[in-house]
Amino acid sequence: MYVYDEYDQKIVDERVSQYRDQTLRYLDGKLSEEQFLPLRLQNGLYVQRLAPMLRVAVPYGLLNSHQLRKVAQLSRDYDKGYVHISTRQNIQFNWPALAEVPDMLAELATVQMHAIQTSGNCIRNTTTDQYAGVATDELEDPRPWCEIIRQWSTLHPEFAFLPRKFKIAVCGSDEDRAAIHAHDIGIELVRNNEGESGLRILVGGGLGRTPVIGVEICDFLEPSHLLTYLEAILRVYNQHGRRDNKYKARIKILVKAMGIAAFREAVEQEWKSLKGGASTLTQNEIDRAKSFFTEPAYAKLDAAETAATLNSQCKTDLIFANWVKRNTVAHRVSGYRIVNISLKATGYAPGDITDKQLELIADLADKYSFGEVRSTHQQNLVLADVEQTQLKDLWHSLQKAGLATANIGYLTDMICCPGGDYCSLANAKSIPVAEAIQSRFDDMDYVYDLGPLELNVSGCMNACGHHHIGHIGILGVDKKGQEFYQVSLGGHQGKDASIGKILGPSFKQDDMPEVIDKLLTTFVGLRQKEETFLETYRRVGIGPFKERVYA
């Protein structure tokens, strides 16, 4: 993973000092609320329904064990002993005192962490595949490109105050696990017919009030031109994006209004003055970025032998076998597996994790996975490099800590925003809905029989819970001061991405488990052989589901 140099550290330390002064001036009444707002946002601080919320950047989802322990310590010393994993792979503290945030940032800086540009109208944290560098279907490791984008975009003076927030995601695998079609800019690593590496660029995607699937603006960009081309896109957006209406200020609105052909022409015109300029990437710079993402010291393991050992363990312990099947993924190196740690145990807020659990995972990362942990936009954690023969010992440790729920990719592995329990923007609560559905469907045999199923919950149209791209999406809405929930079907985040279609009139909170039950019963009755929920929905359409739910 990337390690700060002296310049990185100096920038972060100076930003902490600057923000400490800004906070003190605000508390002394020398800065108004209006003046302080953009300053705190670009240092990760929201003022929420009940308390401030501090969002800490986790660049492309990578953490080391020292950073994890620091987060655990801060959650104990400055918060309520837990944190939340966000859908941008970041970490959120829900209860810090505003006056103490500079102290928290100072401590984060000691482990090369910060909260810069995790909020506000700027380029946000760049995200990628949680299996980057170890996935069996990977064409190229996307993390060096994420790091290049991170360095370019951090504190970029021209793009510090965009019309609205701006999000970039990078995918380097056959399967899109980064939801690149749902981002302002999506980047896919590709190869042309001559076998040369390049970048496919998508633009104008995004969720929120107006969900849009991104469209291709460039089918093959030479890697050296990445930053100049991104700069051209951002410059066109910065110049022409609407600033009179925050709901219509996103690049997706501009692309729709102009049409992709006209937008592409504007970008190409802007690019003429940038192409080949100072931001052009040299091979040395690309190689420098790649040098930080080297292969760890993998043991030379016999594939047949390790597989035989794991199979034997699975045969004698069916509960362990089920966890291996549901929560681990094939690794490109023989004898290793990728381990997903589910933060979706029934009865707990999805994506939340306690200080003790964080410290345990840090210890397990040191013991089993080269000291590295990854956060996912599905609000889980990953140990990417675990020897197959050590899986059972790891599983026992996770079991004791309540972290061995075997549900990755299934109904109860829900994406869920903090909702009205925390967020001042939310129209309705999210967590109680998620917990009610988890409790209703606690028969895991039934859940497994349903097959892969993505259920996403958002408390408002900002769509932090990615409800638009869930196979089943739930959106909290306000009806004359009462909380209701709108359901959509057919969303998907992959390379054949789609936006869910609204089922019909919204439902009361207490009705939601029954509504989901009717949807699932309809699916079970309609599916053919091993069809997934999404496959069945795409075959039969929304009609049968609507008919059953509103009967």
Provide the helix percentage. 25-40%
Mean pLDDT: 97
CATH superfamily of the largest domain, please?
Sulfite Reductase Hemoprotein, domain 1
Q: How many distinct domains? A: 4
Report low-confidence residues grouped into runs of 5 or more: none
First-last Cα distance: 54 Å
Q: Please state the oligomeric state of the protein chains shown.
A: single chain
Radius of gyration: 23 Å
Q: What class do helices, strands and sheet pairing give?
A: alpha+beta
Estimate the global geometry from the Cα principal axes.
globular
CATH architecture of the largest domain: 2-Layer Sandwich
Overview of this structure, please?
There is one protein chain. The protein is an alpha+beta fold. 37% of the residues lie in helices and 17% in strands. It is built from 18 helices and 21 strands. The strands form four sheets. Strands 16, 17, 18, 19, 20 and 21 form a six-stranded mixed sheet that branches. It has a five-stranded antiparallel sheet with strand order 1-2-5-4-13. The chain has a five-stranded antiparallel sheet with strand order 3-14-15-12-11. Strand 14 and strand 15 form a beta hairpin. The chain starts with 5 loop residues before the first helix and ends with a helix. The mean pLDDT is 97.
